[in-house]
Amino acid sequence: MRITSLFSPSGVGMAVGLSALLLSSTAWSQTYSEAPELAEMVAAGSLPPVEERLPLEPRVVTPYNEIGTYGGTWRRAFKGPSDDRGPQKLMEPRIVRFVQTAPGEFGIEPAWASSYEINETSTEFTFHIREGLKWSDGHPVTTEDVLFYFEDVVGDDNPWPWPSLLKQGDERAVVMAVNAYTFTVSFSQPSPLFVTRLAREYVWMAKPAHYLKQFHPAYASAEELAAAAAEFEVAGWEDLWGRRGKAESYWVNPDVPTLSAWTITTPPPADQVVFERNPYFYAVDTEGNQLPYIDAITHDLFQDTETLNLWVAQGRIDLQQRHMGVGNFPFFKENEAAGDYEVKIWSGLEVDTLWPNQTTSDVVMAELFQQADFRQAINIAIDRDTINEIVFAGLATPMQAGPPEGSAIYNEELIGKWSEYDPEAANALLDGMGLTERDGDGYRLRPDGKTLEIVITSALFASDIDMLELVSEFWSDIGIKTSLDVVERTLYLDRVNANEVMMGHWPMGRAAFFLIDPGAYAATLADNSWATAWGEYHLDRGKDFAVAPPEGHILHDVWAKLDAASTAASQEEAIALGEEVLAIHAAEPNWVGVVGAAPNLFIRSNRVGNFPEGFIRDDITRDIGIIPTEQLYIKE
Amino acid sequence: MQSATSMTSPLLEIANLKKHFGQSRGLFKYDPHAVRAVNGISLTVKEGETTALVGESGCGKSTAAKLISGALAPTSGDIRLRTRDGTLLDVATLRGSARKKLWRDVQLIFQDPFSSLNPRMTVRQIIAEPLRNFGIARGEEATMIVADLLDRVGLQSNAMNRYPHAFSGGQRQRIGIARALAVNPRLVIGDEPVSALDVSVAAQILNLFQSLKRDLGLTYLLITHDLSVVRHSADRVAVMYLGQIVEENTTAALFSAPKHPYTHALLSAVPSHREKEKTRVVLPGEVASARNLPTGCAFHPRCALATDLCRKVTPQITTGSNGSRVACHTPLDEAST
Amino acid sequence: MTDISQHESDLLKSYAEASGFRLGWAKFRKHKLAVVSLYIVGFLYILAIFAEFMSPYHHSDINRRHVLAPPQVVHFVDHGGGVSWPYVRELKSERDPITRRLSYVEDVETKHTLRLFAPSEPYEMWGFIPLETRFLGISEPKRGATMFLLGTDTLGRDVLSRIIRGARISLSIGLVGVALSFVIGIVLGGMSGYYGGWVDTAVQRTIDFLQSLPTIPLWMGLAAAVPPGQDPIVTYLMITVILSIIGWTGIARVVRGRFLALREEDFVLAARISGASEIRIILRHMVPSFASHIIASLTLSIPEMILAETALSFLGLGLQSPAVSWGVLLKDAQSLQVISQAPWLLIPGLAVVITVLAFNFLGDGLRDASDPYGKT
Amino acid sequence: MTGYIIRRILWFIPTLFAVSIVSFAIIQLPPGDYLTVLEAQMGAEGDYSPEVVERLRERFGFDQPFLVQYGKWMWAMLAHGDLGYSFEWRVPVSSLIGEYMALTVAVTAATLIATWIVALPIGIYSAVRPYSVFDYVATVFGFIGKATPNFLLALILMWLAFVYWGADVSGLFSPEYKNAPWTWDKIVDLFKHLWLPLIVLGTSGAASLIRQMRANVLDELQKPYVEAARAQGLPEWRVILRYPVRVALNPFLSTIGTTIPELFSGAVTTAIVLNLPMAGPMLLRALTSQDMYLAGSFIFLLSVFTLIGTLISDILLTIVDPRIQFDEA
């Protein structure tokens, strides 16, 4: 269950080899089929024939179970504009993408690229665009679109900053077009993780130049720009671009050409957001049927999760994992018949974790947290089995925080450590530290004579509160008072960023391949704030509370190894360094992992076919997006 | 019932008293004289006499009562009171707590015996209120005075610990009178003091007024719309119409020979046993509004005798040979009644 | 005959000498619902004040083996059929292997009798009186012997104990704000009504302005602006106090109205003519006349504060676990899972309904009684 | 009278100004701004980029002082009727608010009317037959509606509707009508969904309305003119309808203004549980995500509605009771 294929040299070879294989299997002679309504449009002359719409070598997707049938609407729900990633992850227009062929069998495949090559030193990456690939408006995709992105969209003087993915330090990668369908990305130093990060980060590598030029000052006149801004009802042309830009985003602008399987037809703020099939989508199934099978995807807006739960029970959700809390498992299970669905479980890689801030502004607490004995004591004082049983209906796994089994890099020792319930030993550790004085309520006193109290700041609700309350119960058994400060998510981040948090509560995630996003281990990710001031020192963002960790602290070592990993000559070297980082963290506890690998519940309507079971879900590998959603179909 | 009026000195002199209420007109305009409730009345109340101010409801007589009793400040005009120490008090200029000086000499009896007594106080507390406030008496001494006052107004002293809700209207009015008498006032203003009472009870109260006047040498100013009350109680009568006094005379003279057509009309409405043959004068139209006074004589729209002069020129009040005063261009003579 | 007339005259005398308070009380007593409500409210406050003693368990005691246990039935009949001292039976739990749902069955063999003033783990009343007795409990506490009369929640905590403990906060926390609102409202409304003129205009326009501000955004802003690390109850209290600074408008309008009406009353003029000073007129004559109205509105605004607490907690703007209030308990119960599987977690809702009803009827009765001289 | 009304309207302007400042200040009260939220979201989704955030901060003018931001917002509103831009939804606030406000007004108005239709006859009947069984039953039921937290009632009714009829009662429209243009069928669909919010929202207001109506009618019934009308031999129901009810209605007409915002606040939790596309939940979400122009505009418009309501109330009051306009000279 490890993502081995990705990083071994054969992984690259496999990607290239696979596309070669595809080329042979989808011989020119093959005729393609298409959705009946598209066929009608072709017959009516309003759409070119399917052969002309597909690239010369379409991406061939092997359905998980069987060849599907065309038609149907996939009904889902979303929670508002801030939840836009939910719909988007179903259809990210990626140049390379993660795949999971069997549970835990991860790989990276070219998506709208037909293939890519990596040189020996991992400094130069060559990508081949599928010849004849079309944007969703039928316009061909060429390296012109790639160059437009790098020359006119990102970088200085352009609407948006250069993506950090294509940077090493302050130095940018060089993007060059070889011909209309081939381009290269070159780094001055090895970048072994580039392709993997490309499969995960929000860098699409190309933009529809023919459409977007009308909004760009290098191509359009001031009047045209003003007219465009007026049409989109924004203040200036700059607002048409970027993460929240209006013209450029396929999530809000139905007119912008895209490479995704579906394109938006009813954008937000509608109460029901609708995506419809992209007639130029570049993939087919193994029998040459153009994908996607499903006609349309709808997302109904909901405000309260209970509304969504009711929709589930009413059978109004076809396939969805987002917002399906594990605490509702019995409810979902008992309404399977009523809603004509099944609850399917994928395993998650997140670990619910508490982060004692070793640099918290309360100096006495910071000193306590800096002592390994103290951290070990609060770790082993927690009865994780009970928490799992009560809060997670026994479905999760009690563990220490780290990459769980199923991750590309993981350390078995780390996730098994300090998770045995042993209150006597915990008490002994605390007594050994000299924390023997108690107050009237039986709580230990800190060295300065105050009651030893830990304040947990959390941005979470519902079942997480139950977990935290259990933790405080366990800690009060060893004489530590615990109080909870539950705040809104942004407030939580604000407090972390101001180093106002004594102990944070946030899952350790992104474990499928932690090197892509190693902030939790480097103490630089705000959510996983076990040493905020030290992390800020490394980030060097000018926060006044930033301070260097003491001489010889493991963080110096961790940072050095992570920096080395990002410029290692090969993936093996990077992985080896990553394993060393995990080993460092396995030496003494730096945080309090509680339970992890909790099941991720998928509500899967019995109408939905080709849904794979038992996979691993992780944000790194794009959640549900790891399924080629285009091969899902509605049985009817 | 007539007393030797010429002998007595004036207790209260009112000259050209006005009270106007303001109202906004248009956007920023504010007309401070929009409603002329009392529009220039002059009246003299002589010590020991009962003077009545008569008029229909809305004629401004209640406002006049409030002005004279100091509850309301006039727009202009003079009210002069001869206080017990002989000095003249300019009532019209009194404001705030300075009015307390006035209320040592002038007290008011209210129309509604139900609302004029605080339901949350006992009779003793109510009557002792002025005693306490004017520093006349407190405690046991006050209780004795209260008992005395109750006795004087015809109530038993066991009433003292009761609350107003235990009393009838007439009894309550007696309590109100007792309260007014507590400061030993010189002038008692009765603002429709019996109009809320049954006829028989009203008569008892009026008799009480008479006896109190006799015993205590009080001076009354009775404000009323009821001419039958006036006939039996008053020495002099002033008739008000739309904020002005239109006629003033001794009771006997006024009743026997009204000079103003309005007085005549009012009198004709009083049921009388003696003058069965008298024709009732029915007033045409309605009382004009104090907000929109007619030009000329305020009464002209309803007056059968109105001339062009009446419509244009406001008649001034003139004093006749026998001390009678009337404001009319075409006064009635005795023959026409 | 003489006896009767003696009795009648006594009655008459007592009526005649009855103060406004006594008349009001007599009128209040005629309002049966209000009287019952008075008892209920009194009972609730006793529960709230003596919460530690009245609740069978500590409100945050976690029972790992009794998560989401249904209310335990009090039996009066033995397993054998004989009449017994009230007792409960032990619960055995089982987890459904497919739905993972916990279900409980009574073990008919075990029998734990109940008693009043039952022994318990030592605890402290009001945080300083050590006690080892609770009002109701199992006569011989031992492992597995539980008495969850209203069931348990997701952590196996006794719902009854939590409701009783929640009453303490729910019935008290808004009172500070309500009281403050009333003080400000009475003073400003009184000034507005008594002085009139520009004071009145200024106060009225301020009221218009404040009333037009929506509460929820203000609440959110304040909740975020309060410095971190505070006890959530303190935070909530601070916000209610801040909000009461703008929440006085309703009562100010009432008071102003009463003042305007009373200012025109003859007995107020009579008092003035009787030489009473302004302050005496206000305090001795006017205030007693509407004090009862104020008390009635006060009573009616308490249920609104209780409901507001539940709504704000539901929105995540009020109190939060581990603080225990009815709003917090209801928020925890606000899920389909609970409604379909553990409906007893909705019982706090019943507590809210009963309390709000009781306060409303009480206020209604007080309002009727507040005008003992009226005709109804 | 006109003068009074005009002066009252003129007062409206400074109040509006004060309200706009406070609206803007409220949304600035929480620490951070929309970009903090965006940062948090991006962080959670793993595409955080500090440069992007910095550029946006500049672009949105968040680095400017409060008064400058306020001034710009006000100026745009006054000069172009532009309420600003919703960062989250990426559309101008004006295009977002319209439909939500319209549905809010529709639901609120429907609730108000439904409550009146139910509460007024009950109130009148209770007044005519005070302390009767019906009076007690109506009072108790009314108060139970008032005493039950809206969100709880909404969830329970929603669940019962699902369990017993399998009915889909969330929202205001069935999925197939959500994006459909207005047709007769869509209106029918709306009414199929409207009953639940009406019950939840209506029950909380009905009790006070019944009690108020009852008290007003009771007062009127004791006045002499009612006796007079009875003496004329009019049938009882006509006596009641002709005078007391008409007079007792006055206080209601004059409180319309203040009732609407109250209903709105009460509707927030209901709208969240029942997933109603109304302004309340949207405002709440805008506040959470610090979508400041959206939140600010909602608060501002809401306040304006309330102010207009109060204005109408006051004007109605002067019409009903002309004494109010007099000031002493």
Could you list some keywords that capture this structure?
heterotetramer; B: 337 residues; alpha/beta; eight-stranded mixed sheet; four-stranded antiparallel sheet; 10 helices; globular; disordered N terminus; C: 376 residues; alpha+beta; MetI-like fold; 2 domains; 15 helices; 4 strands; 59% helix; 13% strand
Task: Write up this protein.
The complex is a heterotetramer of chains A (636), B (337), C (376) and D (329). Chain A folds into 2 domains: 36-208 and 257-294 and 617-634, Dipeptide-binding Protein, Domain 1 (Dipeptide-binding Protein, domain 1), CATH 3.90.76; 351-596, Roll (Dipeptide-binding Protein, domain 3). Chain A has 23 helices and 26 strands. In chain A, strand 5 (113-118) and strand 6 (124-129) form a beta hairpin. The model of chain A is unreliable at 1-29 (pLDDT under 50). Chain B has a domain at 255-337. Chain B contains 10 helices and 12 strands. In chain B, the strands form 2 sheets. An 8-stranded mixed beta sheet of chain B has the order 6-7-8-3-9-10-12-11, with helices on both faces. A 4-stranded antiparallel beta sheet of chain B has the order 2-1-4-5. In chain B, a hairpin with a 3-residue loop joins strand 1 (10-25) and strand 2. Chain C has 376 residues and is of the alpha+beta class. Chain C is built from 15 helices and 4 strands. Chain C has a 4-stranded antiparallel beta sheet with strand order 1-2-3-4. Chain C starts with a helix and ends in a 6-residue tail after the last helix. Chain D is built from 14 helices and 2 strands. Chains in contact: A-C, A-D, B-C, B-D, C-D.
**Based on the structure, what is the oligomeric state of the protein chains?**
heterotetramer
Low-confidence segments of chain D, given as residue ranges, are 323-329
Secondary-structure element pattern of chain B, one letter each: EEEHEEHEHHHEHEHEEHHHEE
Q: What is the CA-based Rg of chain D, rounded?
A: 24 Å
- Counting DSSP E segments of at least 2 residues, the number of strands of chain D comes to 2
**Helix-strand category of chain D:** mainly alpha
N-end to C-end Cα span of chain B: 24 Å
What is the strand and helix layout of this fold?
The complex is a heterotetramer of chains A (636), B (337), C (376) and D (329).
Chain A: H1 4-7, H2 9-25, H3 36-44, H4 50-53, E1 59-61, E2 73-78, H5 85-88, E3 96-102, E4 105-110, E5 113-118, E6 124-129, H6 143-153, E7 167-168, E8 171-172, E9 174-179, E10 182-186, H7 194-198, H8 209-212, H9 222-231, E11 262-266, E12 272-277, E13 283-285, E14 296-301, H10 305-313, E15 319-320, H11 329-334, H12 336-339, E16 341-348, E17 351-356, H13 363-369, H14 372-380, H15 384-391, E18 397-398, H16 412-416, H17 423-432, E19 453-458, H18 463-477, E20 481-486, H19 489-497, E21 503-505, H20 519-522, H21 532-539, H22 554-566, H23 571-585, E22 592-596, E23 599-605, E24 608-609, E25 616-617, E26 633-634
Parallel strand pairs in A: 1-13, 2-14, 16-25, 19-20, 19-21
Antiparallel strand pairs in A: 3-4, 5-6, 6-10, 7-8, 9-10, 11-12, 12-14, 15-23, 16-23, 17-21, 17-22, 18-22, 24-26
Chain B: E1 10-25, E2 29-46, E3 50-54, H1 61-68, E4 76-82, E5 88-90, H2 100-103, E6 106-109, H3 123-133, H4 139-152, H5 169-181, E7 187-191, H6 199-216, E8 219-224, H7 227-233, E9 236-241, E10 244-250, H8 251-256, H9 261-268, H10 308-312, E11 318-319, E12 325-326
Parallel strand pairs in B: 3-8, 3-9, 6-7, 7-8
Antiparallel strand pairs in B: 1-2, 1-4, 4-5, 9-10, 10-12, 11-12
Helix pairs in contact in B: 3-4, 3-5, 4-5
Chain C: H1 2-16, H2 20-30, H3 32-49, H4 51-54, E1 75-77, E2 83-95, E3 102-125, E4 129-138, H5 159-170, H6 173-195, H7 197-211, H8 215-225, H9 232-246, H10 249-263, H11 266-273, H12 278-314, H13 326-333, H14 336-341, H15 347-370
Antiparallel strand pairs in C: 1-2, 2-3, 3-4
Helix pairs in contact in C: 2-15, 3-5, 3-15, 5-13, 6-7, 6-9, 6-10, 6-12, 7-10, 8-9, 10-12, 11-12, 12-13, 12-15, 13-15
